Amino acid sequence: MTAHTDLSTKSSETLFQEMSMMAVKDRTPTLVELVSRAHTPPAEVELLSTCGKPIRGRTASGRERKGLSRCGSTSCFRCQVLAGKQAGTRSWSLLLAAMNGIPDRRLMSAVTINAEDRDLHRFKRAVRRFMRKHSLKYTGEYSVSLAGLLHVHVAVLHGDMGGLMLRRLLQDQFGKYPVINVKPLPVTRKVGGVVKMVTIEEAVRGWIQYAHVPLKNKDFKNHPEVRNPEGLAQFIEWDSAVLGDRRCEGGFTLEEKASAGRMRKRNTTNRRNGADNTKRQDAIRESLRKFKLRSALNGAPIRSGKDSVESRIQLGSPHLDADQLDRSSQWR
Ligand SMILES: [Zn+2]
């Protein structure tokens, strides 16, 4: 717990090291300390240091009780954890509505596009124009890279077009990797060295939330330019220079948006009214989903290979080995 230790006595090197090991939400005080050591602290630091103030005393275990003030800054770890979760919920509800409640991994891809210059307006317009031209449904967020350039993390629903085709079209428009990166949503994730299966929902949420982590652990390892207070101050300055909405979203019909809105509202209402009902409703919804899926599959004979594996993943069959999972992630 670094919450009430005196950070000013620690060396920058130690702080960087601690920061890369901390949980995301605990990093803000360290970030503020590091950036304020730079010779020209940007106004953003002042804003950052108001977050979670004033301290409302201590808990029984000696932990600080944070104040309710929130800075809302995109460089603030405390604020971005919540913002990321909300963005993940929004994106997932939209995608689910667009897939008529039956999620299918092969219909979407995780896409990153990097801007090549600092003209923010032109980049946003180019992204929007590309998506509209190919009638894609997309939802995600813009963020700022360590070089101060805008980039976008979106989940793109490409349907029958397929991920490989989408990659080709994006390459023609924006350039090859690393300018663009198109990947299938992950099927597994390593948690503490153990391979764990992730549902489509977790994969989408994870992808969107990732855009909300201002500095990733690998940034500290790979980018020497942020490993000093001046570098961090520069990043925050660039980050705060981006104006306007960070949301990158489009292609959804009014009906889908309304349905997604209802979905989100229902979930918050359920949470407010207690979890008893929610569990039961979730079970009903799950069996309904399986029923829909079964009737959808009954029409067509189940082919061997990825189709059948995918459907078994949907139904939550426990009999899956890693090899089958790999194949199931082959989006075309
Ligand atoms: Zn904040």
Explain this structure to me?
The protein has 332 residues and is α+β, with helices and mostly antiparallel strands. 49% of the residues lie in helices and 12% in strands. The chain has a domain at 273-328. The protein contains 13 helices and seven strands. Strands 4-1-3-2-7 form a five-stranded antiparallel beta sheet, sandwiched between helices. A two-stranded antiparallel ribbon has the order 5-6. Helix 2 (28-36) packs across helix 9 (229-241) and helix 4 crosses helix 10 (254-272). The protein binds zinc ion (ZN). Zinc ion (ZN) binds next to helix 4.
Bound molecules: zinc ion
The portion of residues forming beta strands comes to: 5-15%
Main pleated sheet: 5 strands, antiparallel
Give the N-terminus to C-terminus distance in angstroms.
Answer: 47 Å
Helicity level: 40-55%
Specify the number of helices.
13
Order of helices and strands: HHHHEHEEHEEEHHHEHHHH
Question: Which class best fits the helix and strand makeup?
Answer: alpha+beta
**Adjacency order of strands in the biggest sheet:** 4-1-3-2-7
Contiguous low-pLDDT stretches (5 residues minimum) are 302-328
Shape: globular
Mean pLDDT level: 82
Per DSSP E runs of 2 or more residues, the count of β-strands stands at 7
Q: Rg to the nearest angstrom?
A: 22 Å
